[in-house]
Every structure is written in C-alpha cells, then in structure tokens.
Amino acid sequence: MSDYKDKYEMVIGLEVHAQLKTKSKIFGREGCEFGHEPNTETGPVTLALPGVLPVLNKECVNMAILTGLALNSKIPSRCKFDRKQYFYPDLPKGYQISQYDEPICLGGWVQISNKKIGITRAHLEEDAGKLVHAGASGLYGSSYSLVDLNRAGTPLLEIVSEPDMRSAQEAREYVENLRNILRYIGVCDGNLEEGSMRADANISIRPIGQKEFGTRAEIKNVNSFRSLVRAIEYEFIRQAEILEEGGKVIQETRLWDDNSGTTSSMRGKEDAHDYRYFPEPDLMPLEISQEWIDEIKAKMPELPHQKLERYQNIGLSEYDANVLVNQQEMALYFDKLLEKGADAKTASNFLTGEVAAFLKEEKIQIQDSKLSIDNFVKLLDLLKKGTISNNIAKSLIVEILKTGEDAQALVEKKGLSVISDEASILPIIQKIIASNPEQVAAYKGGKDKLFGFFVGQAMKETKGRANPQLLNKLLKQELEK
C-alpha cells in the first residue's frame, strides 16, 4: 500500500445520514423509535395508502436549522422538497421525498486536527424501509426477503462534505467530530450500530500532482469507524491496482463486507438526472425567516470545540480535555462536579483514570454507575482535606462505583483515614531503619534513590494511610541522624 501512496493520492467525500431525534416521522404521526417489532411503527403515510398527504414535522426543520448553525452553514430564506424517483421494495411510494436544488443548509465546515473539511450542503429527507433476507440460497432454494417498514419515513438529515479528505484517518476524524456535534446539540444519538447515523464514502484516486479528480466509487454499508477506515483503505488499493494494470475505474456503488474486508459491486452509480427529481407537489416551499433562525440560535448549547477550550482554560491538559469532550455523558458529569465546587484537575484525573477503566470493563455509561455526583464530591473533599490519601481515594472510588456506598461512611467503616500525627508515624520509621542497616548505610553512602525504599516500607506498614508529607519529613530527619 505504501508503494501506491507514493504514486497516488486518494480523494474522499462523505455523505452522512443522521436520523433526527424526533418523536414522530418527518411527514406523518407514526413513531420512529428503534427496536420495535417489524411493521408496528407504520400508518397510512408510511404505507403510502391512496389519498394520504404528507405534513411536514416542524421539529425536523428546527433540528436541521440548529445543525446548520452548528456546522457554520447558511440557512436560506427558502427551501423546498423534491421527489427522488427510484424503485426499491422497501420504498412504499416508489419515490423518496428529499431536497435537491434548494436544500435547507448550504456550505459550512467541520474542523479536524489539521484543517477544515468543507460542507457542501445538508438536506432533509425521509428514510426508506429495510429488507430482511432469510432462507437458503440457490436456484431451487427457499430464500426470501421480508420488508420491514418501521424505518420508512424516519426523518434524516443528509450532510454532504466537500471532497477535502485525503486519508482514511482524516475521514474517521471528520465523522467522529461531526457525530460529537450532532450529539451535543441533541439532534441525533449517533448510534452507528443501530443505523441512526450512517456514512457513505465517495472515493477516487489520482496520480500525485494531478488536479483533475479520478472516477469515484461510492461505498455503502459502513456502520462503524473501524469499518470506515478499512473500507477506504481497501478501495484505495483496489483502484490503484486497476490503474496499474492499465484499466479504468468505473463509477459505481459498492458494498462493504466487514467479514471479508472487501468491497463488491452493487450497481452502477446514478447521477442526479437518473432520479428524475421534480418539486414535490404535495408540499409547499418552506419560507424560513431570520426571526425563526435567531430563535433557534439562542438555544444553541455549548459545542464540543467550545467545551474543549473551556476545559483547557481551567487547567486540563489537551489530552484530558479531549477524553472528556469525546464522551458526552462524561463531560456532562464533569460539568456537574465543577458546579459543586470540585477541583477540575483532580476530578478529571479520576474520571479519565479509574472511572473510565471501570466503565469500559463493565460496558456501561457513567450515568448507569452507582457513583452519584454528591458522593463523588464528598470523596474529593475527603482527599482535599487530607483525611484520605490519593491511593486510598483511588481504591475507594472503584468500590463506590460498584456499591454506591457513602464515601465518608466507607472511610470510617474501614478505618482508612490518613495517619497525620507524628507520635504514630515516628515509631514505625525508627523500626524500619533499625531493621534495614545495610540499606541505611548505602543511603548515607550516596545512594539517594533508596529513600523510596524506606517510603515504600513505611506505607506498607501503615497500609497506605501515612500522611506522605509528614512521612517524608520524619524519614529524612531520622536517616540524616
């Protein structure tokens, strides 16, 4: 692959379909929650029964405008809906209501680590249903397909990027950052596995230095960040090998197979004219006033890049700030800790360390754990006052995550408060020094690193409860006698 990368440059544009978090569908009253029994979230509009008419869900428009503002897009004063004609068994009407030449959002960009990725447009449309394939295969087999129309009519916002990405990693970062924005503003849950966010990748390659784009292939069926990277890198090699052998890449739609790690041809890639777009006659063009836009803009929550900057301004490292921001639930939890007066750096260390490790092992989110905000603040306060040591706090927080037991009560029950009186620590130090004459002699002979040995012995003797500052002070005094 490295040989090809020295000769060819990949050009990537992404079409991301984000399912909007509305209670009902874009043109009907039917619900659109994931996980219901097949064909139970349907109704006259979803089934395209004779005589029914679409009625636009206003909340879809609000969410589209909010997304456009978050993506630095322009919201035109007018947009309209169009019919996109194509046949597929899970498309009840025989066409899809979408937007073509007058979408709700124009332009914009998403920042990734090294550049801005341009947004061409974002438009509203309805989703199609789903085909479920089952049975044996073969000429005389009993294979069959069933249609589940629960997803049909679900509101989608399709966000189309400019072909600005040049590597699979850039594409991944773009989708991750876009997903973060959509989740923070509350318009999409970003669940790739459930299909509420899907990415189609348009990939072409060209000799390095060439300005003209090559022929692109569209990759569908990508439902994870890992699959996105693998699909793009596979497709780059496939197209490079075709060109190396003197062939031509054809414009087509291909499917990604995660098991085999390959793409396969699905159909020839259509152009816009193949869909015979024309204005949807049952929906009037939508007029969007500046007052409407301003009203939605006033409700804009803090965006990921703004939160990242705020966290760094209060003392968090760029790494720690990114870890928190990239996990929205963790960031919201962290903000509640700050509201209660918790020290930002200390709270962050626990969240990105012991807490994150526990949640990963248990495969849960922080809101599903038993560590309440008030109890966490209580633990941090015990640490700040010197009642417990940092190591004890680390062990306690894991126990509290499991049991939810009160931090103060747990310290008292286990007798874990820090030993901070000289009269208790000094005899322990003197005993350790008397028991290790060779190490004492070596330390006094210049081996300063042995100081850590004595600290470790004292901590072991006190079960980690000795006040570190007092311990170090008394130990140094005794060793220098």
| E-strand count | 16
Poorly predicted parts: none
Secondary-structure class = alpha+beta
- The averaged pLDDT comes out at 90
Largest pleated sheet: 9 strands, mixed
Strand content: 15-25%
State Rg.
30 Å
Note the overall shape: elongated
Number of helices: 16
* Percentage of residues assigned to helices: 25-40%
**How many structural domains in the coordinates?**
3
Span from first to last CA?
67 Å
Q: Mind explaining what this structure looks like?
A:
The chain is built from 16 helices and 16 strands. With 481 residues, it is an alpha+beta fold. It has 3 domains: 2-292, no CATH class; 302-414, no CATH class; 422-479, Arc Repressor Mutant, subunit A (Orthogonal Bundle). The strands form 4 sheets. Strands 1, 5, 6, 7, 10, 11, 12, 13 and 14 form a 9-stranded mixed sheet that branches. A 3-stranded antiparallel sheet has the order 4-3-15, with no helix packed on it. The longest helix has 20 residues, at 225-244.
Brief overview:
The protein is an alpha+beta fold and 481 residues long.
